[in-house]
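To close the section, here is one more complete example, presented without commentary so you can practise reading it yourself. The ligand is iron/sulfur cluster.
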Amino acid sequence: MKKSTLKTIRIMVSSVIFVSLTLLFTVPATWICAHLYGFQAIQWLPAAMSFSLAICIIWLVVTLLFGRIYCSSVCPLGTWQDICSHLGCRSRGKGVTQGWYHYRPPLSMIRNIVVIITFASLLVGITFIAAFLDPSSIFHRACSTILSPTVRGIPPWIAGSISGFILSVCMMTIISIMSWKRGRMWCNSFCPVGTALGYVSRHAVMRIDIDTDRCTQCRKCEHVCKSECIDLTSHTVDGSRCVNCFNCINVCDDDAIHYTYTRKQLSIPMMQKVNGPKTAATLNRPASSAQCTSQRRTDK
Ligand code: SF4
Ligand code: SF4
Ligand code: SF4
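Output:
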């Protein structure tokens, strides 16, 4: 498979779902509702809020197998952020294969607090917090309060509730500026769905892995990683924040980063226990050095 294939598929699927949901939320004509409603029905948090357990569980299983496919292809707010971050990249004179991102550690405390508040409030029957933060609802509100009146030629601030319009403008402005500057920062710091799926995707079977034998530390992958989750100091990718965009695979000229079920990394850099029979040489060495040698592990 060509290394650009995964990214091409991701862009095609996310484009179809993004356009379909935009149409559904903006022009709710009967034909559109009948044919495109399925894309709304598979959104994760609305399914959880309406107790559609099957959809929730299917997405958790998919995430456990393949990582955050949901965030790369299905969530319309994720695709909107990709558009903004791409424009931000262009505005800095960077091409598709360049970037300005750098690894940053996760804002774990904020992520955990947001997800605990969201799901605890749902459990006690308070839905407005989840509705406020749910990415599908944010996108739906933006389409129905800003885009829909605009295409009908009605000033959005008089078409419906003024508070709904102001809320949508504020949320979309904040998220757009964040993604313009920092890619998927909203996704990996404030979105409760992203954090919940991230708890699962950090243990995903298929994930991005760096082959340390091939990596030349050119840092191209780090610069295009909109999740800022590739740590080249330890050659690790934070699976809880990776949104499976496959940008990193596309730019690596050394074929050192893959989407795979295998792991090929140094367990403890340059120091690994020898499991063979003891030789005279090792027996004569001090205990600490006899147990270790500078040997790389090929852990396939
Ligand atoms: S983290 Fe949230 S906003 Fe971002 S793509 Fe995933 S579900 Fe959508
Ligand atoms: S692009 Fe490839 S070679 Fe360069 S730092 Fe990333 S994994 Fe290593
Ligand atoms: S690690 Fe690769 S696939 Fe994951 S978000 Fe970063 S660039 Fe995208």
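Once you have examined the tokens, check your reading against these statements. The pocket of iron/sulfur cluster (ligand 1) is lined by residues 71, 75, 77-78, 135, 187, 191, 193-194 (CB under 6 Å). The beta strands are 207-210, 230-231, 236-237, 257-260, 272-273, 292-293.
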